Predict the 3D structure of the following.
Amino acid sequence: MLGLAEPLAEAEELTSEFREYRECTAFSGKIAIVGFGKMGALHATILKMLSPESEITVVEKSRLIRRGASTFLKDVRFYGELDEMLEKEEP
């Protein structure tokens, strides 16, 4: 276990920086992401990390992508059509 102290100290420092950053950028509200390609997935994941209490809704036509994404983003709501999301979600 030689050399583990340095990476652990660095990880603790990064965790501390992340907490400070999250406090500065805290947002709690409703967010809708249309399209869940690479950028949509990245945005949803980062937003959930930075603001776990925010409500995120995703509109994605592909049922396969919606099913796969819902397995790792449990508290994100997915819709197949924009109109459906607009009907069911309140601003």
Remarks:
- The radius of gyration is 17 Å.
